[in-house]
Amino acid sequence: MSSFDSGQPRTTFREITGKGFVFIWTLSASELTGRENKMKIIECVPNFSEGRNREVVESIVAVLTAVSGIRLLDYSLDADHHRSVVTFIGSPDTVVAGALAACNRAVEQIDMRKHRGGVHPRIGAVDVVPFIPLDDAEMKDAIAAAHSFGAIFGDQNQIPVYFYGAAALTSERRELPAVRRGGYESLEERLKDPSWKPDAGPAVFNAKSGATAVGARIPLVAFNVVLNCCDLEPAREIARCIRQSSGGLPHVKAIGIPLESRQVVQVSMNLTDYRETSMCRVFDEIKARAECLGVEILESELIGLVPRDALGGRDPEYFKLKDFTSSRILEECLCDPDFPFKKAE
């Protein structure tokens, strides 16, 4: 996000030191040549299997923000998905400490044996913990953070941990859907298979907490499009047509799911490389296929923050984005000196 790749726009960061001094700086590889202590910023976006109990989610956020050096950027929860997503940044060591604090609290408070009704795929209470390099951080820094977190978290909580994405130790586990295949319900049986031995933590089923996927990756866009109908088949058909695994658009993962609380359906997506397959391309494809099926797009939503370039220069109205403000753009959050936290509404 921001200047992750050479030639990307610079990002401004604001730091309050222990002595109370405020520093504001921009990070650019060319301008920072010769700087003794370049900043390495890692983003972490843990996904928790709790989307209906706000007190639990806010408890997780509270212990996270108590960690010195952590900057919370966003958090949200969704009852239909039965899932919450938290976004924060910090130095590599600080982000690992913050992730451990938040995820340990989640393990205390979330019981997968009671997790019912969520439509989102999941394998554990702490379902997914990705680490993303920003600015002067490199992918190797995110991988190191993922491996450090995974080893400590798995050992402390006796939870099987699987590394995915750039942090994967085997090619078979590089893709997140492969790690989550079968979900929590099949986890106990899968752990009996020697080929499914976890990368960290015990090869023992933890009924309360399940397992956790820990990864390193480039920024992705979590993009959901809601169709104005209650029939699930159009959403499933569109998802089948656009996802890469079915021969659709590159770097698109998609499923069709019902939103029972609203009596509508949703095409839920991850765009794993928005630079190659843009939001605009995906939205236009969904719109065209929806029209062919006789349904309309009601609205769309973004989960978490997105790089400015993800919008491709389009206005939010083009995508029918719900509740969209500039605070959803990563660069805006980082550039705003008066943006310490975003509280859930």
TrEMBL record:
Principal place of residence: cytoplasm
Keyword ATP-binding found: no
Gene3D superfamilies the UniProt entry points to: Formiminotransferase, C-terminal subdomain, Formiminotransferase, N-terminal subdomain
Leader sequence residues: none
Any Pfam family matching the protein: FTCD
Record EC number: 2.1.2.5
Sample GO molecular function, one term: glutamate formimidoyltransferase activity
Annotated pathway: Amino-acid degradation; L-histidine degradation into L-glutamate; L-glutamate from N-formimidoyl-L-glutamate (transferase route): step 1/1
GO cellular component: cytoplasm
InterPro entries recorded: Formiminotransferase_C, Formiminotransferase_C_sf, Formiminotransferase_cat, Formiminotransferase_N, Formiminotransferase_N_sf, FormiminoTrfase_cat_dom_sf, FTCD
Keywords: Cytoplasm, Folate-binding, Histidine metabolism, Transferase
Broad enzyme group: transferase
Transmembrane segments: none
Location(s), subcellular: Cytoplasm
Domain Formiminotransferase C-terminal subdomain: 219-333
Chain ranges of the Formiminotransferase N-terminal subdomain domain: 40-218
GO annotation (BP), single: L-histidine catabolic process to glutamate and formate
Protein name: glutamate formimidoyltransferase
